[in-house]
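Reply to dn_fold:

You asked what the input looked like. This is it:
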Amino acid sequence: MLEVSNLYKSYDGSLLLRGISFSVAAGETVCLLGASGSGKSTLLRIIAGLESAEQGEVCWEGRHLGAVPAHRRGFGLVFQDYALFPHMDVAENVAFGLKMLGLPGTETESRVNSVLEKVNLTEFSHRRVTDLSRGEQQRVALARALAPNPHLLMFDEPLGALDRSLRAQLMEELRDILRTSGVPAIYVTHDQEEAFNLADRILLLHNGEIVRQGRPAEVWAEPGSAWVARFLDVGNILEGSVRADGAIETPVGVFGVACGHKHYSGDKISLLIRPTGVQKVLGAGIGMRGLLNGVVADVIFHQDRFKVVLANHLYFYLPEAPKIGQEISLQLAPTALQCLP
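and this is what came back:
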């Protein structure tokens, strides 16, 4: 379907995109996840035809799109600010792109009714968009993008301006719409929750490069680097060194780790300690391998468990709350430990 190959783009003499390559398959939703300045929105604009790359290609079903203007690519765009026409009602906003395509009035009306039903706005067709809530306006923007039957849908931080509860509701609705429509999509966000809820596949961008990609469960289970683990807040990251017996020595203890990487005595590595799968044990097993000791600095209720923050800034989730100031020992499960390159 969509093929992006070796894209480069620079601003003010600095590279913003560094050889980006990926594809989007039929019916697949790919999320470009990254911090501000990582290049994800620029990448989306290049695919849309709103900006040009200095090197590389964007192809749709084998056709090079470099010379194809944005309005002829057949891609639908949904932005954070919605870009709706305030002097038009809902139906007129949705019909705008169809009229630009020169479709007959009966077909235009039929498509408008169909997409408004998909986004649960049938009863709002004659309301002015300025009278709608932000969530309703977002649905109008989505309906307008869907109406021309686009080859590909592209979203640039579409839920960024919404409050948490409305964002969660729209994520669920958007996921259902993308699944039922079958339209492939690229979704740009800095929000991990959005990416992990919506994506079939995540591309994590950092400094203009894809540093990790895969299905959400794969990326979470195997972040692949200390930077990715920190960005996703997968758990605690400690710097350690490999001992002669293969164990990892860190400032907070010595841990045996089943690691698929080849290490030598003295090697410096990053150790990921996941905050789940730990057990509080009686006594302070100072120096015992696999035990982590610390003083409780803070306890935060977190739904059905407690986030326990230690004085050394490590954190863990426990079923019961210890007292602040208490010294505790935690037994780490082997699955909670992971070496990172």
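The longest strand covers residues 291-302.
Hope that clears it up.
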